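protien #1 (seq + structre)
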Amino acid sequence: MPGSESKPGKMRFAIVGAGVISPFHARAIKENPEAELVAICDVLPEQAQKLAAEHAPNAQTYTDYEAMLKRDDIDAVCVTVPSGFHGDVAIAAAQAGKHVLCEKPLDITSSKMTEMIDACRSRNLKLGCIYQRRVTESTMLAKKAIDEGKLGKLVMGDVYQKYYRSPEYYRSAGWRGTLAIDGGGALMNQGVHGIDQIVWLMGDVHSVFAYSAPLIREIEVEDTAVAVVRYKNGAFGVIQGTTSVYPSQQARCEIHGEKGTIVFSENGFTQWKFMDSDEPIPAVKPRARSNSGDPKDIPNDGHFILLDDFIRAVREDRDPLITGEEARKAVDLILAIYESSRTGKEVLLQPNN
């Protein structure tokens, strides 16, 4: 096809959506010796052209992703459109025989996530999702300690995500802060990362009771939310998420068990203490950047790790680190939080097959 001169053996990627998060995918592809970016699509042609000029000058640009998906030299598609369009693009890519790596959240409705998973599974295509906090050194060390039983029976698992997003941020794109396309606010857009993180560490959630509302910003969805959860293992937890406080705070996880406590933020551990143990706090490499008030100011290593694993999952015919089934858990919990806030009742989470 025109515009693509792939090197042998490289996995050929296309990106759909050339907005704020797309450069993270483009850089991860460019930095991976086994990947190549061959096509970019955005409804604004100048956006696609700009992304190509910066990261893949030989990539062909499009404004119609369905036309782009007709190419037979595209192996996988990175979905980086606004959240409410994730499912439509992913399903179209699967129907065209392409593997799918989707930016968070997987989608904003339970039914669409089911369709995405089924579209890929039924065709033996891989569906991965970007939740980069799972692959931070701190999160992986905490998970290992929990799995090894260092904390004993888990008692509490909390995540606090207190961010600042200005009025200008919400005005910067018509879909931001909308229910139909953003799917929610401080939780669905920003807080989904920490919610995925705490559920991965603590295990699945049984039920939730929550409050959420736009307390400060003039948007359709919440800029502030607080939820109390009961995990299936019997532990309790608190989830806080906001984009309405100034200045932004470091996101923080707290895991407490009968035999120990682990507390860590974006820059490492502040507590790592187990009963009858003098084990020191692990030293972890600080994040390259950590301005949680700027949506563009995040390190790129998580995207690289997950894209590299995705490539290997395709070649080894195995599941990627974060499957569609895993990726939907955070979204299903957020939807339950919204339902609880609307109804004033505790909401039980239903298992999804």
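ok now protien #2
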Amino acid sequence: MEETISLQDLFKTLKKNLGIIALTTILAITIAGAVSFLFLTPIYENSTQILVNQEQTEASQLTNQNIQTDLQLINTYSVIIKSPAILDPVIEQMNLDMSAEELTQKITVNTAENSQVVNVVVRDEDPAQAVEIANTTAEVFENDVRELMNVDNVSILSPAILKENPSPVEPNPILNMAIAAVVGLMLGVGIAFLREYLDTSMKTEQDIEDILGVPLLGVISPIKEKAELETTTSNRRKAAELNG
């Protein structure tokens, strides 16, 4: 016999296990909040902008080939910025206790589409150090790229600045708690349906018919408690005495 579950049964299951669902959701939010505020290290972000000025002659025209050449040059600069040729001098100037590979993990270089501006983004546990790394990297690149590529078309457009009250970009407690709430809710619903699936006891007349597959012939009335029986018997005796 194929077992089917109605929408009403689903709502009954959720209602019956509402406490478990609420408990798992609150517990997940609490754990996520505690981890975000107490255990995860705040990460701060700052950036500097580098402008790549292409020299244009009077006879030059803006063609697709020129645009492609500009983009390739900027992509090359993006690679050079994160190379040991730039990062090793940065480490030496700042006396950083890390390798060029470790410093690379803190730096992200990106450019806007069809833009001559290169953004050097630095993430670090210390906001002041993030600013210093970004500015030092830009300065070293501006000076050393002249010898590396024999060009003089790079300048710092906007240096990184330390804000008075910097806010960390990681972790995001609100986002973490929101995700935890969804996960806790899903977990609670899963537990609710798992309990219902594992519960094979028969509680109603319909359960008997569904599980055994036979029609119900009769129902035994609930047995009254001893006190109720004594009260009923006493009332019957009084009624008989009055009638007699």
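Residues 60 and 214 are 93 Å apart (CA to CA).
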